[in-house]
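One record is set out below.
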Amino acid sequence: MFRGLISSVALIAVAGVAATFYVYGEVEPCKVLAKEYEMRGEDGNGILEALGISTEKLYRLETSQYSSGECTEMLFTSWRQRLNI
């Protein structure tokens, strides 16, 4: 029974990493967070995009100052906001 529980947890973790890679093309939390912010586009960066400035690079610059743990926490917060939990 214990082996089945560990296998289930490992399978869920692998599926979560695979789904994250499929959606964002990254698994590093700060890069995923930058892509999440870009996908949400809540800052209204249409002017920057019209000028040919990559908003993802700006978000990567912003998220590069955080640790992986902070990025992971902020990513889960963003997902919860998206789901309104």
Q: What stands out?
A: The CA atoms of residues 26 and 77 lie 18 Å apart. The chain has a mean pLDDT of 85. The first helix runs from residue 2 to 24. The chain has one domain: 2-83.
